[in-house]
Design a protein that fits this description.
heterodimer; A: about 425 residues; mainly beta; 16-stranded antiparallel β-barrel; B: about 350 residues; mainly alpha; 2 domains; two-stranded antiparallel ribbon; about 35% helix; globular
């Protein structure tokens, strides 16, 4: 029984470490005939041009309206997957094996001047025979996969000062994108940390509407209204709101050049009781007595040649009513990350990165404190014409808990393939 | 909750209005076809587009070539088209900007004539929608040929050899400015440079490019973002971009494309020149302010020049290393230089062989 529990634990941890699906869209490179480096420092991380291309609704910045639309170009479909050897070690468990760490089916393109779309379907590949025919009350997934993203972008509504994204999308408060990180295995601990009694996960793509924009002075903003429940149906009567603002100094967009500083605030609501609740026709199971929670923080990015240092700090506070551990106090935590990326060799074929993560929790929940140290080496093969293969090596050492911490080591040596 | 619905209703109502509002800006010259973006693959040049109202004939091309090299089109018989668009200097001149009649210095660098036939708009600011219209301009420009169309036509009309040739080509007399322009344009449509090492590489000759040049091509189409504008078979989008080039030369202010379109967003935007044969015609930019191709790449590498309010959003620092700059320059220098001088009609006509 112990062995079975251990195996389940290992599988659970590996499941948690499944890659945050990355957004590298070779279909767009194919459309234009560009090499991936046009938009990516090295895929999936965007460079300044790529960031502006994305912000502009997958249109060449300044050339909106001159793009061929999806009906005049090859099917805008792309695939990305990472397959190889991965391993997980703790004091009491050691396992390794070949894994398919993720699969993304992507489609993106321009439908009309300043109207574009992005779909990312992530089929479940971990349990292909699983039975998902359970009760349809919104708590069980109804299909063997999910749309990680599915949104329409109305861009350049007021030049580049207003773009509106509707659907499920990566929200603007992800100042450092986990979806386009060089790290494949849940890179940012503070993003994936969730508090007891609150099912909000900072890392989730959200369903709602978001406005973003920029001015030529380097100021960028993003503000949105979302469910706050990831892919799940909404669970309360209030919507969550957020705002992110940043300023880039110097030439560039802060991704691969220029220096950036910014701040964000997320304000959400969480229901307390579901007793007697019945699902709505769309599957929502709304609870009662909604209580607030918020997240806020700052981020910064420094660029020098092909070195990129970026950091993020976040503090989270849940209303005491949500705090199931100590209902007399608000649940407060904080954490952050610091990441240094280096791109080397011609055309950035070699990527080296180190990453430090930490999450500090209240003393009564100190077993969930996290410190993690990670490193990545990636080497890109291929001829850069929208068919890319990267050999990816990643290692993370994580310590969870204050007293007698659980020490975990996770590694992966995989081929990261985008077509 | 009601507030949320009101907010969403406002958003839904306003999106179409804003979309409509975004389309109300003045449009550029009508009737000019500029290629759509994507695919933008670099490759071999296609057949030269020829307008239906000015078909190519051998006699017309020869007449146009004679006119192109004839200094008698200028007011003091010193300047021909070839003076500033010299085939031996990559169909441009030594610069930095062109020297016209009376040693007057022009405000902009002479754009190359080679492969200009593929461009939908002519001049740095695109004010001419065809080669024919372009050919009329410099004749009466006071700092270029300093002539008038009427005086030039009288001059040509007094040369029996020309009169006979015009009659043979167009079948009518007297000579008109449209006929002069059509003949010059017909010649310019033969100035096509195709057979570069790059073209041979695209046709399948793997040995045509050196390893360094291949790296340069890879960088050209990726990290250096060159193909965002210098794309297609002609290595230009034919559009207009503000790169933040520091104004220099006789003009203290040069607003470029916006002087034609009157659109603020075109302020200081100039037409993308082709990369083909670029190594043959330094210096670079519309001012001739960058002396070498390495200077040009370094200019882009730092994100362009002056960051004014109209700087093109394509201008971002590139993060190129010195080695990558070197590979890129190697690609643009030898690999993009045409080897087909005959096809490019490069041999000048000596003055002694011009019509008398």
């Amino acid at each position: 029984m112990k062995k079975l529990c251990l195996l389940l634990l290992v599988l659970f941890v590996l499941q948690l470490m499944m890659p945050a699906s990355g957004h590298a869209i070779p279909a767009l490179a194919r459309k234009h005939g560009f090499n991936c480096n046009m938009c990516h420092t090295a895929y999936p991380k965007l460079n300044d041009f790529g960031q502006r291309f994305r912000d502009s609704g997958y249109q060449i910045p300044g050339q909106e309206g001159k793009e061929k639309n999806v009906f005049d170009t090859p099917p805008p479909i792309a695939v990305r997957t990472s397959t190889g050897l991965s391993g997980y070690n703790t004091k009491n468990a050691t396992t390794s094996g070949f894994d398919m760490l993720g699969l993304d089916l992507l489609a993106a393109g321009v439908m009309h001047k300043n109207i574009s779309f992005l779909f990312i379907y992530t089929p479940r590949i971990d349990e292909p025979s699983a039975d998902y025919t359970g009760s349809q009350d919104g708590t069980n997934p109804l299909q063997l996969g999910a749309f990680e993203s599915g949104n329409v972008v109305f861009s350049n509504l007021i030049q580049d000062a207003l773009n509106v994204r509707v659907g499920r999308f990566e929200p603007a408060y992800h100042a450092i994108s986990s979806k386009r990180s060089f790290y494949l295995m849940e890179p940012y601990e503070i993003y994936s940390f969730s508090t007891p009694g609150n099912n909000f996960v900072f890392d989730d793509n959200q369903i709602g509407v978001e406005a973003t924009g920029r001015c030529r002075c380097g100021f960028k903003y993003g503000l949105g209204v979302v469910n706050g429940t990831g892919a799940s149906p909404d669970n309360n009567r209030y919507k969550d709101v957020y705002v992110d603002a940043s300023q880039t100094m110097g030439a560039g967009d802060g991704q691969s050049a220029g220096q950036t500083i910014g701040a964000f605030v997320y304000y959400g609501w969480q229901p307390l009781t579901f007793s007697g609740a019945t699902p709505s026709p769309t599957g929502e199971v709304g609870g009662g007595r909604n209580k607030p929670f918020y997240r806020f923080g700052g981020h910064a990015g420094l660029n020098w040649k092909t070195l990129n240092l970026q950091g993020l700090y976040m503090k989270g506070v849940d209303d005491k009513s949500i705090n199931v551990l100590t209902p007399t106090k608000d649940y407060e935590f904080d954490g952050g990350l610091a990441e240094l990326d280096y791109a080397g060799l011609k055309n950035n074929r070699l990527i080296a990165s180190v990453l430090y993560n930490w999450v500090s929790t209240p003393s009564y929940d100190c077993d969930r404190e996290v410190k993690a140290y990670s490193g990545v080496l990636r080497y890109y093969f291929g001829d850069w014409t929208a068919v890319n293969v990267a050999l990816h090596a990643e290692y993370t050492h994580r310590e969870t808990g204050e007293t007698d911490p659980l020490k975990e080591s996770v590694y992966a040596l995989v081929v990261d393939f985008a077509f | 909750m009601k507030r949320i619905y009101v907010f969403l209703a406002i958003v839904i109502l306003f999106v179409p209005l804003l979309l409509l509002a975004a389309d109300t800006s003045p449009q550029p010259l009508t009737g000019v076809e500029v290629h759509s973006l994507g695919p933008q693959k670099v490759g071999n040049l296609p057949q030269v587009p020829v307008p239906a109202n000015n078909p190519q004939t051998g006699l017309k091309i020869m007449l146009g070539k004679q006119l192109y090299f004839d200094t008698r089109l200028s007011s003091d018989n010193t300047i021909s088209c070839a003076t500033c668009h010299n085939p031996l200097m990559g169909w441009s001149d030594k610069g930095p900007t062109s020297e016209g009649i009376g040693s007057q210095r022009g405000g902009r660098r002479a754009p190359p004539v080679s492969n200009a036939a593929y461009l939908p708009l002519q001049f740095w600011d695109g004010r001419a929608p065809s080669l024919e219209e372009q050919a009329k301009g410099p004749i009466q420009n006071p700092v270029e040929m300093g002539n008038t169309h009427e005086h030039m036509l009288r001059t040509v009309g007094d040369i029996p050899g020309y009169v006979e040739e015009f009659k043979n080509v167009f079948g009518t007399t007297p000579v008109t400015i449209d006929q002069v322009a059509e003949a010059v344009a017909a010649f310019e449509r033969t100035v096509v440079t195709t057979d570069s090492p790059f073209d041979r590489f695209v046709r399948g000759d793997e040995t045509a490019l050196t390893p360094l040049e291949k790296q340069g091509l890879e960088i050209f189409n990726g990290k250096a973002h060159c193909t965002a504008c210098h794309w297609g078979s002609h290595f230009t989008d034919g559009r207009f971009h503000n790169l933040g080039v520091t104004q220099s030369g006789p003009l203290k202010v040069d607003d470029g494309r916006s002087e034609i379109t009157k659109r603020p967003r075109d302020t200081r935007a100039f037409k993308t020149p082709t990369i083909r044969d670029a190594a043959l015609r330094p210096p670079y930019m519309h001012t001739g302010g960058e002396k070498t191709l390495t200077d040009v790449v370094n200019f882009y590498n730092k994100g362009g020049g002056t960051h004014d309010a109209y700087l093109d959003r394509l201008m971002v620092p590139l993060g190129l290393t010195d080695q990558e700059v070197g590979a890129l320059v190697a690609f643009m220098t030898r690999a993009m230089t045409s080897l087909n001088t005959e096809v490019a009609n490069v041999t000048p006509i000596p003055t002694s062989e011009l019509p008398k």
